[in-house]
Amino acid sequence: xxxxEIIIRDPYILLYEGKYYMYGTRSLTTWSKADGFDCxxxxxxxxxxxxxxxxHKPETFFATEKYWAPECYEYHGAxxxxxxxxxESECTQMYILKSDSPLGSFKVHxxxxxxxxxxxxxxxxxxxxxxxxxxxxxxFEDIRHGEMCAVQLADDLTExxxxxxxxxxxxxxxxxxxxxxxxxxxxxxxxAYFTDGPGIIKLKxxxxxxxxxxxxxxxxxxxxxxxxxxxxxxPWRQQDEPVFPLNGGHGMVFTDKENNRRFVLHYPDTHFKxxxxxxxxxVEDETIRFED
Length: 292
Description:
Layout: E1 8-16, E2 19-26, E3 36-42, E4 48-56, E5 65-75, E6 78-86, E7 93-99, E8 107-108, E9 120-128, E10 131-138, E11 147-153, E12 160-169, H1 182-186, E13 196-202, E14 208-216, E15 219-227, E16 236-238, E17 249-255, E18 261-267, E19 275-283, E20 288-291
Antiparallel strand pairs: 1-2, 2-3, 3-4, 5-6, 6-7, 7-8, 9-10, 10-11, 11-12, 13-14, 14-15, 15-16, 17-18, 18-19, 19-20
C-alpha cells in the first residue's frame, strides 16, 4: 500500500537491517476502546506492507483505551516499545513493552514508568552518558500550562528510578496557544495548553534540540526547544515561532538508508484522516527546517 493509504497518528520509524518499521496510534481507536498496536514495513518509505499487529492486550492488562504513540527502540539486543495506556478508571500512564523482533509479539515488560496519579502521555527515550531517560508530557488534564518532564530509567528498562524533573512548560513558547476545545471535550474552563510528542535531535552547533507539539495559530503545530548546554536538564529555551505550523504534529527525526536526516509527522490533524508525512530535514546551528 501507499503511505497515504495508512491512517495513523503519531508515526514512529525504526530502521533495522535495511527495512523501515513504522509504528503509530490506530486512528480509528484513538478516542474509543483500544487493544493493540500495529507496524508497517517498507524498503523505500513509499510502498508499505501491513498492518502487522505487534502487541495485543493481555487479559490481565488494565488498559482498555488510549493506546497511544508507540515508539520502538533496539536496545541491548532486544526491541522495546514505549507507549501510553489508560482505562475508564485510570488516567493515561506509560509502560514499556519488549520483544525479540521489531514485529513482536511484544509483551508488557515494565512497571508503570510515569508518576502514580499523573496524567502522562507520549514518551520518548533519550540516552545521556549511557544512562536511559524517559521524556514525557505531563498533560493539561493535571497541569493547565502543560509540562515536559523526564525521569531516569533502570538500565534494563523495567522501571523508573530517581525523581521526575521538569524540563519546561507549554506556556514558555510564545507560539503555543490555549487549545480551543478544552471546555467542550474535557470540561476545563480555564486556558489549557498542549505539550506532547517530544523528539530529541542534536543541532549542528552541538546543542540539544527537542521537537514537541502544541497548538498554534493554524491548529496542531510543532515547535523547537533548545538546551544550550547540550544536556537534558537544560535549561531549555523556546523558539519564538513553530518549525511546522500547519495543522500537523507529533513528529520524530530519523536517518534513512542513504544517511539523510528525515522527519515524519502525522498530517493533517483531522480525525480519521491522519497519514504519515515525510519531510527532508535541514539541521542548522540554532534551528531545523523541513523540505517536502
